[in-house]
Amino acid sequence: MANTDSDADVLPLTDERWRAILANDAAYDGQFCYAVRTTGIFCRPSCKSRPPNAGNVRLFRSAEEALSESFRPCKRCRPTGRRLPDDEWIASVAAYIDSRFTEPLSLERLAEAAHGSPYHLHRTFKKVMGMTPVEYIQRKRVKLARKLLRETGLPVAEVGLRAGWANTPYFVTLFKKMTGVTPAAYRERQKLDSR
Ligand SMILES: [Zn+2]
């Protein structure tokens, strides 16, 4: 007697379904899966990952529906029934970083969003990408910082902040380590080069 309503587009998050998610109730697997808007990942009701914020949850009747809305299957509970290959998993983590690298991102936070353990994520990311997730984040930030230093007159501290570093001395040290020059020297050199 399920799903006979005419307005079949959205499966509502009823108390019953929400309880099933919170209790990781496997009896509901196959009846629906839930996606989390903030992470773009969807799970079986029985998934042991941390309960999402109810306001970010969207329900689907099947994994196919969730996939068609561009949600990605959780690596842990594998709602599509297939194991997600490492390459695909890491590509989704990299895409997550690409869209959020200016925010505070720790390995723990990434692992939580990617539904894997920090240790496993670190190892697998390095195997697939040739660098650790933290290195990947730092490269993205340095690239943005270089662009801001070249193209704007923003103070160095502000450049660091916009690229994702709240701590200016740390930003300057890391920038120098990765590029060989300080942010101020980099900006100066760009000015000379463009003359
Ligand atoms: Zn899951």
UniProtKB/TrEMBL annotation:
<keyword id="KW-0227">DNA damage</keyword>
<protein>
    <submittedName>
        <fullName>Methylphosphotriester-DNA--protein-cysteine methyltransferase family protein</fullName>
    </submittedName>
</protein>
<dbReference type="GO" id="GO:0003700">
    <property type="term" value="F:DNA-binding transcription factor activity"/>
</dbReference>
<dbReference type="GO" id="GO:0032259">
    <property type="term" value="P:methylation"/>
</dbReference>
<dbReference type="Pfam" id="PF02805">
    <property type="entry name" value="Ada_Zn_binding"/>
</dbReference>
<keyword id="KW-0234">DNA repair</keyword>
<keyword id="KW-0808">Transferase</keyword>
<keyword id="KW-0489">Methyltransferase</keyword>
<dbReference type="GO" id="GO:0006307">
    <property type="term" value="P:DNA alkylation repair"/>
</dbReference>
<feature type="domain" description="HTH araC/xylS-type">
    <location>
        <begin position="91"/>
        <end position="189"/>
    </location>
</feature>
<dbReference type="GO" id="GO:0008168">
    <property type="term" value="F:methyltransferase activity"/>
</dbReference>
<keyword id="KW-0479">Metal-binding</keyword>
<keyword id="KW-0804">Transcription</keyword>
<dbReference type="InterPro" id="IPR035451">
    <property type="entry name" value="Ada-like_dom_sf"/>
</dbReference>
<dbReference type="GO" id="GO:0008270">
    <property type="term" value="F:zinc ion binding"/>
</dbReference>
<keyword id="KW-0862">Zinc</keyword>
<dbReference type="InterPro" id="IPR016220">
    <property type="entry name" value="Me-P-triester_DNA_alkyl-Trfase"/>
</dbReference>
<dbReference type="GO" id="GO:0043565">
    <property type="term" value="F:sequence-specific DNA binding"/>
</dbReference>
<dbReference type="InterPro" id="IPR018060">
    <property type="entry name" value="HTH_AraC"/>
</dbReference>
<dbReference type="InterPro" id="IPR004026">
    <property type="entry name" value="Ada_DNA_repair_Zn-bd"/>
</dbReference>
<keyword id="KW-0238">DNA-binding</keyword>
<keyword id="KW-0010">Activator</keyword>
<dbReference type="InterPro" id="IPR009057">
    <property type="entry name" value="Homeodomain-like_sf"/>
</dbReference>
<dbReference type="Pfam" id="PF12833">
    <property type="entry name" value="HTH_18"/>
</dbReference>
<keyword id="KW-0805">Transcription regulation</keyword>
<dbReference type="InterPro" id="IPR020449">
    <property type="entry name" value="Tscrpt_reg_AraC-type_HTH"/>
</dbReference>
